Amino acid sequence: MGEIRALRQSDVATVAALFQRILRKTSAPATPALEAYLTRLFLEGPEQDSEIHSHVHIRDDGSVSGFLGVLPLPLMMGERPVRGALCGTFMVDNHADDPFAGARLMRAFLSGPQDISLTETANDISTTMWRRLRATVLPEHSLEWLRVIRPAGFITEMAANVVGAARLLAPLARPADALIRRGAPEPRWSSLAAAIAEGTLASHDLDDESAAHLFTRFVSHFAVRPSWREENLRRMVEESRHKATFGAMVRRMVTTRDGKPVGMFLYYGDPGRIGRVLQILAAPGRAGEVIDAMLAHANERGMVALRGRAQPALLEAMLGRRFAFVHASSSIVHARDPALIEPFLAGKAFFNGFAGESWSRLIGDRF
Fold it and tell me: Which InterPro entries match (predicted)?
């Protein structure tokens, strides 16, 4: 039977190799840059807590056969500080040789000193483990959304994800989309009108410092929210810039006519491609206007669609704007005190995106 212990610097090279082979599904060796980033994230990461750490599974021969990456996530529940921990990167080598290695890693994580344990995107196998350990799946946080902007371009891009040569058809998709979108002032399920209504609010590019300030501002009304230290949030914001496989980063603030900020959005993608939205934040009652500003900007940039992770605070506004929803993975919460879970089930907790692991370079960047 294997053992579980805290991640050490000497384990990082093996963990990086596992990451390449199991999660990136490549035979290419792990680079020094990947090893350095794993060290930076899991041993020197933001909001480090000496008692909350990542775990490795050790075989009887002393080799590392599994890893569960943990990021401390300090939270505020009203005015009460809550110790949170986020389960992120999770992988086990040769599962058939030791089918209980994953369960041991999960139990070690959940038995930690944190008040509340979270995961942002658990697959079906991981979700089964969490449920057996009496965790709670959050349905409204567990949805992926999609908004098609240019239907012909979207179909071409989806085909290119299977057969890369299909992207050569992209020039033919552009006139088809122009025809489909012409004379369609109302939003459709299949496309976005070529012209967005004049009432859409303006948006402006954000630098790292301003973005960090607005993050703090726009999560302040949630009953449960991250309690980021300023320097750590700035680090997360800066690192979120680097997602080379997703395309160029777009990060913008939405303002009223008199310049008052009412929200912000962050997505990645290049013209003609499907953009990936990392975060949408809005002041209470302004979600629809922020979403419209995001769609208008993506439309102007030539995106064929946007996709992202759902948040309960945005669902009502999305339902009237022709978004499609699907379940691909689960967001889950575990706590010994049931009162800590209630705000998550009620949609009053800020979770996913920056209150998760999606900001990190492990998701969407090259090393």
Answer: Acyl_CoA_acyltransferase
DSSP labels for 50-113? TTB--EEEE-TTS-EEEEEEEEEEEEEETTEEEEEEEEEEEEESSGGG-TTHHHHHHHHHHTSS
Cα→Cα distances 8→12, 88, 182, Å:
7, 17, 59
- Radius of gyration over every alpha carbon of the chain, rounded to an integer in angstroms: 21
| Other beta carbons less than 10 A from residue 49's beta carbon | 18
pTM (two decimals): 0.91
Looking at domain 144-326, its CATH class is alpha beta
CA-closest candidate to residue 216, choices 206, 225, 208, 203: 225
pLDDT digits (tens, 9 = 90+) for 173-218: 676 667 666 655 555 655 566 556 556 899 999 999 999 999 999 9
Structure tokens at 254: 């939405």
Same fold, 3-141 and 144-326: yes
Burial 53-71 (b: 16+ CB within 10 A, else e): bbbbbbbeeeebbbbbbbb
3-state secondary structure of 288: helix
Assign domain 3-141 to its CATH architecture: 3-Layer(aba) Sandwich (3.40)
Domain parsing of the chain, residue ranges: 3-141, 144-326
CA distance 320 to 306: 16
